[in-house]
Every structure is written in structure tokens, then in C-alpha cells.
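DM between two lab members

TW: hey, do you still have the DNA repair protein RecO entry open?
JB: yeah, one sec
JB: this one, 270 aa:
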Amino acid sequence: MSVIQQPAYVLHTRPYKETSLQVTLLMPQQGKRFATFRGVRQASKAARQKQAWLQPFQPLQVAWQASPSNQDWLMPSHLEAYGQVHWLSGEANLCGLYLNELLYNSLPLAQPCETLFVVYIETLQALSNQAKMDKISPATLNRAQQAWWLRRFEWYLLQELGYPLHTWLTEQTYGFVAGAAIDPQRPYRLRPQTLPELADHQAEVWDLPGAALLALLDEQAGSAGQIDLRLLAALKRVFRAHLDLFLAGRPLGSRQLLQTFLTTAKDTSS
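TW: and the structure you got?
JB:
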């Protein structure tokens, strides 16, 4: 039997029996997969080391033997840390937990997601860098940048889930889409299962300013926090409406925690 080895991140863990953990992993070629790590909750030094690795935001290398018996549930034979952990704290940590919870609840099992895996790493790195900047730059700027990185991640995730907005915008950029270029002054309607189209006068939750669509293409401006806060709010509203369809009514605890954190921070500063 051949051995499969993949880079991975932990999305979720739960205790299993007396000494093991059941873990949900994110991998580029294997996508979201369930795995059981045996003996990692024992008292030995090696077990404690492995349990310490099986934490969110720690890059891993995982290996297992490919066989018909473990196609649905992996039984890894090798685990090691692979690179530096992305240190997130405070608000940035809640943002990272939001990414994990979103993937855990929306991403189909065993669907390859190589581009999304790269975007996930980029987002964690950006959140980690901004966590270090909290003490030396305005909180409002950091929050705008964090909001941008979350919206960018949601944009790529929606593409992975089947809503082709990223492909459509890319084709627009290269002139492959028939019709006029995106008008920043006009609203576009992004209904589920349909490509963007100009909105009529009756506003809907799916409506997004053309300027927000163009902002998605200008990633440099977004990462620098130069996107209008109103456009970020519009992207959040529309992307959340789309993602909620894939979540099928499952609430995300990280959303509530983040909202509570922001409310508390606002009350403290006022």
C-alpha cells in the first residue's frame, strides 16, 4: 500500500475514547478530511508533543497508508509540525477561528482545494502580522484590513463551493465577458446560482455596488486598508447571505464571539 503525505491544518478536534483525538484536517489535495490520532492524549513526552501540534494555525505534515478501508476516515501513521505556527491573539484569533468554523461547516468532504489552501495560509499570515501591529497602529485601520482579508477568503471559498464570482471577475479583467465593463457607480445583483447582473430599482440583499466588485480585483489596495468601509460592509452582507445557504442554518459561534469582542472594545473606548 502506498503512503500519502500532505501538509495540513487542524480545523476541529474532539476527544475520542481514553487516549485519542478525532481531528478535522484541511489539506490541499485531500480537502477536508476526518482523522483519528491514537494515543496522543497519553502522559508520555511524545504524546504530549503531538497533542501540542494538533492545535489551530500550526502547519503540519500528516502521512497515512492509502487503502479502501480508510477512505472515509484517515488513520495517520505520521505527524510532525512543519513550519512556524501562526500566532494569533485577541481579535485576530477570533478571525482565525471564524475561518476554521466556516470551513468545518461548509466545505464538502474530500474535495481538493489547493487554491483555497494557499489563500487560507495567506489569510492566517496576514492576521498574524496585524496582531503584531495592534500596539503601534490605529485599531480602526487594523479592523479594516482584517475585514478585507476575511472578505477575500470568503470570496475564494464561495468559488470553491460553486459560486463562480472569482472566475467571472477574472474573465471581466481579461475581457472575456461580453457586455460593458463593470460600472463602479451602479449596483449589481449577485443572486445564488446566477452570474452578476445589473440590479433594477428594487433593492435586494444580493445587491452589491460595482465599486465593491472592482475592489475585489484590487487586492493590493485591500490589503493596505484602502477600501471604503461601506464597500467592506456591502461585501460582508452579500457574502454572508451566500455562505448562509451553504451553512444550512448552522450558527457560527465565532461570529457571535467576534461581535461581542467588538462591542466590548467600542464600549471600553467610548
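TW: got it. The mean pLDDT is 87. Residues 58 and 138 are 28 Å apart (CA to CA).
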